[in-house]
Design goal:
9 strands, 5 helices, alpha+beta, 178 residues
Length: 178
Amino acid sequence: MAGYRKLGRTSSQRKAMLRSLATQLIFHGKITTTETRAKEVRKIAEKLITLAVKEKDNFTTENITVKVPVKDKDGKRVKTLENGRKVTEYNEVERTIQKDSPSRLAARRKILSVLYPVTKVPEDGRRMRSQSKKIDLANVMFEKWAPKYSGRNGGYTRMIKIGARRGDAAPMVLLELL
């Protein structure tokens, strides 16, 4: 008996589909899919959340000095003329950063190896390229989901049966993070 369901696909297609479903589950908090796919995605998602819960507080904070470009009221960089060349003006600013410990860095890389990159697009659909933001799903795992599930020992997802799919009568479920 195999340790996983093949879902009627080749291994590369199956891995891509499960990664995509896991990414959407972590990003949106819930997905609607077939029951067999949900059972496989649940395994992946629960392992990633467990990894994030274990490493959520494993970092140090550090103050650093950073050069930040000066910007005008329109958000464009301020440039001055020096020796006949345009040079951007910079201010030095103190910032506090989080430095991951080696085990948290390894966990972050493991999470990012499973999940696909996500770009959040504005809802109105205008100026999509300039206002789109790349979402760091590893940070979402560490900052949003890990503190929420820190007191739990597994069981981070719930499957709610929603009936048969129209067309082929496949059993559909709503898979959501608790």
